[in-house]
Amino acid sequence: MPITVCETMRLARYSYMNPSRAKSSAERDGFDNVVFLSKNGTQCLCVEKDGEFACAFRGTDYNIQEWISNVDAKRIDNQFGPGALHRGFSNELEVIWPEVSKYVGNEKHVHMIGHSKGGALANIAALRMLYDHINEITLWTFGSPRCMSAKAAAEIELHCRVIRVVNFADPVTWFPRGWWGFKHAGNALYFRGWNQKMIEGPPYAMVWWDAISELAKNIGCWRKLMRKYHLMSHYMLKIIHHLER
Question: What is the pTM of this model?
Answer without folding.
Answer: 0.94
